[in-house]
Amino acid sequence: MANYQQYQKYRLQPESKGFKFGKMLVILVIIFVIYLIGKAIFGGSGEIESILPAENTSTEVVNEVTNENANSNVNAEEESNTNTNIATAGSFDLENCTKVYSRGASDKKQVGLTFNVGTAKEGEIQKVLDTLTNTNTAADFFVRGDVAENNPDLINKISNADFPIYNLSYNHPHFTDLPESGITEQLSKAESAISQRTNKTTKPFFRPPYGEADEDVLAAVTAAGYCPVTWTIDAMDWSTAYTAEQSKERVLSNATNGAIVLMQAGNSTTAEILPSVISQLKEQGYNIVHLDTLLTP
User: Fold this and answer.
1) Which residues of the chain are modeled with pLDDT < 50?
2) Largest CA distance in the chain
3) Cβ-Cβ contacts under 8 Å for 183 (sequence gap 6 or more)
């Protein structure tokens, strides 16, 4: 019996050792698996963290580019608006137009130089444009629709020089003799002829041919979206009864605060006297401004 018990004791001992070894092996395997899982988890997290800043940086760069593009678009829009304002109404509000304007406010030392384009004398008009550009002087042009229709290159020169072009009717009739429908047609035809060549509207200003505008004309013109503007001083540069010197003196001696000067862009006299008119007006302390500034309350 003792021998059998000893035998059993002897036989169980190796199995016990084997069991312990197997258990340890399983534990080691489990630990190793846990280690691998942990490495995968923590190692992956580290990689994710290393990627995230790059993604954030990219987002920041995208935001910066987007902001720059947005700013560029805003600047471009502001520039576009500025160019549009130069050619149209600027700060002038048509609701303020309750009369035919022949001058601006008398409390500011400002004058406006305006030029009618009723003929297509390109050489003389180019001299006027050159003088205005070289002296950095503001000016406004009133153009007939039929002249624009037949001389697109000339009208584009004025527009490309960034001078506003306003409505002088289509073919210069007496507006006080026209019915409302005739006034509307004249304005519309001139607007179409000019805007098709400049891509800019002729609104808000309109110059009645011969300076003729009564209450009926005012009502019809404002209903069409225009404000009628005549002049304070006619340089008479178109008249053979006036020499160039007399035309110049006529402007300078009659200059007052808010005065609107009328000159003819296609006359040789105009091109001749304009440099002196500009320099002497400035010497007298006048600020030469666009109509939208001169006529804004």
Assistant:
1) 1-2, 4-17, 44-90
2) 159
3) 175, 217, 220, 221, 224
Tokens standing for residue 37: 């899982």
**What are the start-end ranges of the E strands in 194-286?**
205-206, 227-228, 233-234, 259-264
Task: Look at residue 227 in the predicted model and tell me its pLDDT.
Answer: 97
CB 209 within 8 A of CB 170: no
Q: Is the dihedral of CA 243, 245, 248, 250 positive or negative?
A: negative
Which numeric CATH code is attached to 94-294? 3.20.20.370
Q: Where are the beta strands (DSSP E) in 170-214?
A: 205-206
CA angle 76, 81, 83 (to 5 degrees): 95
204: preceding bond cis by omega (within 30 degrees): yes
Q: Where are the domains of the chain?
A: 1-87, 94-294
CA within 13 Å, CB half, 109: 7
Distance CA 247, CA 236 (A): 6
Residues 92 and 53: their CA atoms lie apart, in Å, by 52
Would you say 164 and 186 are in contact if contact means Cβ atoms under 8 Å apart? no
pTM: 0.70
